[in-house]
Design a protein that fits this description.
Length: 119
């Protein structure tokens, strides 16, 4: 059974940091790209970051560049999203997703973790 389990969300003040984790199981982790997405209340889902399985390339939305860092621990089948200098507009439910080989199409999705940034 494929599972993607996010953790690490919570409530933080503006300027603070959180590290999200996405623990994967049920598929060959090394073959998949892992992306982070978010959905804020009343807004469409937004792609935040992705790490490619083929060459380890990383991608970031302009809104998070310089503040968020994605990394992967293949031994643990886990991808992390380090979020620094958080802003109230980062408040959203954050989801991780897995796509075969690339960051363009995602096959599996987690249930999400809430991140709330207070001003």
């Amino acid at each position: 059974e494929v599972q993607l389990v996010e953790s690490g969300g919570g409530l933080v003040q503006a300027g603070g940091s959180l590290r999200l984790s996405c623990a994967a199981s049920g598929f060959t982790f090394d073959d998949y790209a892992i992306g982070w997405f978010r959905r804020a209340p009343g807004k469409e889902r937004e792609g935040v970051s992705c790490i490619s399985s083929s060459d380890g390339s990383t991608y970031y939305a302009d809104s998070v560049k310089g503040r968020f860092t994605i990394s992967s621990d293949n031994a643990k089948n886990t991808v992390y999203l380090q979020m620094n200098s958080l802003k109230p507009e980062d408040t959203a439910v954050y989801y991780c997703a897995a796509g075969l080989s690339s960051c363009h199409l995602f096959d599996y999705w987690g249930q999400g973790t809430q991140v709330t940034v207070s001003s």
